[in-house]
Every structure is written in C-alpha cells, then in structure tokens.
Amino acid sequence: MNKVTMYCTAVCPYCVAAERLLKSKGVESIDKIRVDEHPHLREEMMAKTGRRTVPQIYIGETHVGGFDDMSALDKAGGLIPLLNGG
Question: Which residues lie below 8 Å from residue 5, measured CB to CB, with a gap of 6+?
Fold first, then answer.
C-alpha cells in the first residue's frame, strides 16, 4: 500500500472525514503534518500544492487534493487503485 501523507490541523472536520475515509479503505497509518503547530509547514504545503486549505492529501507521490477531491476520486473508482500503487 502506498504511503499516505496528510497536511492537517487539530480541529478540522474535513481532516477527520478524510482520515475516516482512508481508514475505511484499509489505510492503517497516515503521516500527519500539523500545519497549526508548525506554521512554516503551511508555507511548505502551499508551495507544493498551490492551496491554503487543509487537508491536503498525498498518496505516494500523487497529490490527491482535499477531502472533496479524494471523495470524488473514491466515487469514480480511483482511490483503491491509487492506494494499492496502481
């Protein structure tokens, strides 16, 4: 399974929803990068993704986007193959 990295904050309902969706798909570990605790990491996230909002999710080296993007990817049948490295 590909590594999952998520830029997030402590109090973010979309971050919680993203984690719930990922765990329902069998993801056991999510590397969380807390941008509320480390503001310089928000700058890093914005430089990498071009977005200011959290969550910003990476599966392997692929930037999936936020929760809505990942949910749409799941509904289109693309999330499981991406998680599985396909």
Answer: 30, 31, 32, 33, 57, 58
